[in-house]
Amino acid sequence: MKFSVAVLALAGAALLSAGTGAAQAQSYPSRPITVVIGYPPGGGADALARAVASQLGDVSGQSVIVDNRGGFSGNIGAAYVAKSPPDGYTLLVAPTTTYRINGILYGSRVGYDLQKDFAPVTLLGVQPMVLMVNPKLPVDSVTGLLAYAKTHKLTFGSTGVGSLEHIAAELFFKGVPGGAVHVPYRGAGPAIIDLMGGQIDVLFATAPTVVSNKDSGRIKALMVTTAERNPALPTLPTPAEAGLKGFEVVSTYSLLAPAGTPKDVLEKLNALAVKALKTPKAVETFQFMGVQPQPTSLAETRERLSKEYAKWAAVIAENGIKAE
C-alpha cells in the first residue's frame, strides 16, 4: 500500500497536534492565571471573584490574579476575555444571568456573544438578590415600600442598564403607576455608597454586597428574592412571606474561558475549579456571602446555562423589557 508524501505529512501533523494538546493539558497551569471580573472593586461580584481566585490558586499551585475591568454592566470585562488567547490563562468570573440579559437587550453592542465566544468551565454558585432601601425612607416592609412608591417618586440604582439589579427593580415596580427612576452605576460599590448617602432610595443588590454592609446601620434590607430564606440573612423574608406572589430573581455565577480553549485544558481547569469550590474555606466564604456553591461538570455546566439563557429570554419578552 502506498501513501503520498502529502498524506503522510498531514497524518504526522495531526499526531503532533494531538500530542501538543495533551502535553499542554498535562503541564497546565504552568504560569499565573488571570481571573477577570467586569466590575470595580467593592461589590458582590468582586468579592466572589476574589474568593474563587484565592482557592483556585491554592489547588493549582499557581498565582491567580484578579483583574477588575469595570464598565457597561460588566460587558467591558467580558468582551476582553472573549478576545483573549484561548489557552486557559485568562478566565472570566461571570454573573451569567446579567450577561445573558445584556446580550438580549443590546445584541452585538456588548462586544461578544455569550453562547459563541465562551467555553463554560463550571458553575460557581447561585445567590439571591436583596431589596434594600435608604434607612431614612419611612418604610419597614415590602408592602409599605410599594404603597409609598404610589405617592412618591422614588429612584433605584443598579450596576448598569440591563443588569439583573435593573431587571429585578423593573419587575418589582411594574405595578406602580409611573414606576421609579432608574440610576445606573458602573458597579455595586458606587451604588451602595449612594444608597447609604441618600442619593438613591432603593437598590436590589447581590447577597455578598448586603452581608458586608448589613451591620453598618446605613442600609435597611427588606427581603431576599428567592423562594427560601438565605442562611446568611436568616431574618429577611422571602417574596411570598413579604406579600409578593410569583416574584423570584436568582443570580447565577459561572467560570468561563474563551471559546477555542482546548478540551483537555478545559477538563483540567474544571477539575481544579471544582476542587477549589469544595474546599472548606471556599464553602465557608461563599456561604458567608450568601452564595450557594454549585460546582458542575463541563457537560452539566453547558446544560444548566442553556436552560438559564432560555429562561431569561422568556422573562424579557413576556415583560416587554427594553434597553433605555
Descriptive keywords:
324 residues; 19% strand; alpha/beta; 10-stranded mixed sheet; single chain
What's the structural blueprint in terms of helices and strands?
Elements: H1 5-27, E1 33-37, H2 44-60, E2 64-68, H3 75-82, E3 90-95, H4 96-106, E4 118-133, H5 142-149, E5 155-158, H6 164-172, E6 181-184, H7 188-197, E7 202-206, H8 207-211, E8 220-224, H9 239-242, E9 250-258, H10 263-277, H11 280-288, E10 292-293, H12 298-319
Parallel strand pairs: 1-2, 1-3, 5-6, 5-7
Antiparallel strand pairs: 3-9, 4-7, 4-8, 4-9, 4-10
Helix pairs in contact: 1-10, 2-10, 2-11, 4-12
Characterization of the model:
This protein is an alpha/beta fold. The protein is built from twelve helices and ten strands. Strands 1, 2, 3, 4, 5, 6, 7, 8, 9 and 10 form a ten-stranded mixed sheet that branches. Helix 2 packs antiparallel against helix 11. The mean pLDDT is 88.
Give a summary of the structure in a few sentences:
This protein has 324 residues and is α/β, with parallel strands linked by helices.
Strand content: 15-25%
Gap between N and C termini? 68 Å
Biggest sheet: strands, sense, closure? 10 strands, mixed
Range of helix content: 40-55%
- Rounded to the nearest angstrom, the radius of gyration is 22 Å
Shape: globular
Poorly predicted regions are: none
Task: Say how many strands there are.
Answer: 10
Find the structural class using helix and strand composition. Answer: alpha/beta
H/E element order: HEHEHEHEHEHEHEHEHEHHEH
Average residue pLDDT: 88
Put simply, the count of helices is 12
